[in-house]
Amino acid sequence: MHDDSLLTIGAFATRARLSPKALRLYDRLGLLAPAYVDEATGYRWYRTDQVHRARLVALLRQIDMPLARIADMVELPGPQAAEALAAYWAAVEERRAVQGAVVAHLHDRLSGRRPTMYEIRTVDVPEQAVLAERRHLLSDELPRWIPAALGRLEEAAAACGGVAAAPYVAYHAEVTPDSDGPAEACVPVADARAAAAWTEENRAGVVLRVEPAGRLALTRVTKAQVAYPQIVSAYDAVERWIAQEGLTITGPCREVYFADWEDASATDEVCDIAFPVG
């Protein structure tokens, strides 16, 4: 190869201030392919205009950007790449804030520090017909799925005599970054017959079931306390109270949303953390 516009991997590595090992890795990951590879010798050659891309990939790797996002980033024009970088880093900072809150919660639990006090009570609920939509999903999907699912069910309830009680989300198993539930969005309806006809006609992943009358042990939380992991403290508090009272949990835990989420402030009470008990 005698093309003066190309650099050997060693010369290119020096120009890009990277090691040949890093360049081979970037090639293997599909992030920076050589301009030319000699089929007989396997020698790699690079163009000088690839230096910017090589340095960019190296910097993005330093902030732990996923490889798939790096591959997209390096193909974008400068302004769009800057916007993509800002969006990625905002998500990183949000994730770190949540992780910091989790660490603080775990530290308090492990050190035996007195947890936030919650007022816990029981309420009796009547039998009610509910439209329900069940989904296996991870915790990072919940903030989008819950309002969308409840919105769909409330729209359906309008054709079934209206919403009869506060909507809620029941958790049949843990929903975490590793466990996918399932979770079930539920909206009580006023007219069970109309709801049965609606589900038969639409068959849109929505089922009608009858929730039996029973008792809930619950605590009321503010909009700020719904955020993870603060909400975990509320669940823990209700479970401890149930055990202390000698009661038995008889069904999946739930979050009952009785207030307008969009209009509520951080200090407004919006949700009951509840367990069916017997």
Automatic annotation (TrEMBL):
Domain of life: Bacteria
Protein name per Swiss-Prot or TrEMBL: MerR family transcriptional regulator
Native source species: Streptomyces pratisoli
Taxonomic lineage from the root: Bacteria, Bacillati, Actinomycetota, Actinomycetes, Kitasatosporales
